[in-house]
């Protein structure tokens, strides 16, 4: 009786493992595909964020350069004015 019970438990455990294995493999494949998609989206978002930051910084530098150039030109103009 004890042997039959142990054998039954072993068979049930084996069937459960055999039934779960294909599901686990299918989930891994789908998960890998989704991981690649997520990585691609993250790279896209990072590139967009970097582009926006570069644009903002470039505008800031250009405006500051123009302001300082104007200040320098005014200073030279003041020095070259006849007194």
UniProtKB/TrEMBL annotation:
<feature type="compositionally biased region" description="Basic and acidic residues">
    <location>
        <begin position="34"/>
        <end position="48"/>
    </location>
</feature>
<protein>
    <recommendedName>
        <fullName>Pentapeptide MXKDX repeat protein</fullName>
    </recommendedName>
</protein>
<feature type="compositionally biased region" description="Basic residues">
    <location>
        <begin position="49"/>
        <end position="67"/>
    </location>
</feature>
<feature type="compositionally biased region" description="Basic and acidic residues">
    <location>
        <begin position="68"/>
        <end position="83"/>
    </location>
</feature>
<keyword id="KW-0732">Signal</keyword>
<feature type="region of interest" description="Disordered">
    <location>
        <begin position="28"/>
        <end position="83"/>
    </location>
</feature>
<feature type="signal peptide">
    <location>
        <begin position="1"/>
        <end position="26"/>
    </location>
</feature>
């Amino acid at each position: 009786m004890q042997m039959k019970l142990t054998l039954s438990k072993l068979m049930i455990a084996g069937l459960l493992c055999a039934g779960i294995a294909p599901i686990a493999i299918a989930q891994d494949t789908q998960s890998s595909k989704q991981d690649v998609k997520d990585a691609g989206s993250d790279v896209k978002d990072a590139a967009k964020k970097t582009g926006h930051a570069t644009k903002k910084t470039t505008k800031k530098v250009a405006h500051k350069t123009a302001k300082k150039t104007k200040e320098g030109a005014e200073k030279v103009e003041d020095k070259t004015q006849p007194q």
